[in-house]
């Protein structure tokens, strides 16, 4: 499953540089699928959604840091545990029960985003 940042977030920013998928963004910041990945141009995501990876997307939150679920792999393929949760001083990086994925799905998402 993906990780979410709860509203207990104190906007310290400790999590953002730890994300190997660049799936974490500051409140109100636009994001792109291409950010920090090997994606470029029009792509079909592992979930079947077609997107322009370079197109700017609306922020998920305008109040606190947020994680883009389509880009979150819980650090699978990079680390043994989600790094955002490991460094969060207030434990607000928690599993998202609304986005449940198997380890195989997370590995596939990681391989898709980081082809080289």
Secondary structure elements and pairings:
Blueprint: E1 3-5, E2 24-25, E3 42-44, E4 50-52, E5 66-67, H1 83-87, E6 93-95, H2 103-113
Antiparallel strand pairs: 1-6, 2-5, 3-4
Quick summary:
The chain has 2 helices and 6 strands; from the N terminus they run E-E-E-E-E-H-E-H. With 116 residues, the protein is an alpha+beta fold.
Description of the molecule:
The chain is α+β, with helices and mostly antiparallel strands and 116 residues long. 14% of the residues lie in helices and 14% in strands. The chain contains 2 helices and 6 strands. The strands form 3 sheets. The protein has a two-stranded antiparallel sheet. The two termini are 24 Å apart. The mean pLDDT is 95.
CA-CA gap between termini = 24 Å
**Protein structure class:** alpha+beta
Low-confidence stretches: none
Number of strands: 6
Q: How many helices?
A: 2
Q: Mean pLDDT, nearest integer?
A: 95
Secondary-structure element order, N to C: EEEEEHEH
Task: Report the C-alpha radius of gyration, rounded.
Answer: 13 Å
Strand portion? 5-15%
Task: Please summarize the sheet with the most strands.
Answer: 2 strands, antiparallel
Main-sheet strand order equals: 1-6
Helix content: 10-25%
Categorize the overall geometry.
globular
Keywords, please?
116 residues; 14% helix; 2 helices; two-stranded antiparallel sheet; alpha+beta; globular; 6 strands
């Amino acid at each position: 499953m993906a990780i979410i940042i709860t509203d207990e977030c104190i906007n310290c920013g400790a999590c953002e540089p730890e994300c190997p998928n660049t799936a974490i963004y500051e409140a109100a910041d636009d994001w792109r699928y291409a950010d920090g990945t090997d994606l470029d141009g029009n792509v079909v995501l592992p979930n079947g959604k077609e997107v322009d990876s370079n197109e700017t997307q609306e922020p998920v939150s305008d109040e606190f840091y947020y994680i883009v679920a389509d880009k979150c792999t819980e650090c699978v393929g990079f680390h043994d545990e989600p790094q955002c949760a490991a460094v969060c001083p207030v434990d607000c990086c928690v599993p998202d029960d609304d986005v449940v994925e198997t380890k195989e799905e997370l590995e596939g998402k990681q391989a898709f985003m980081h082809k080289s």
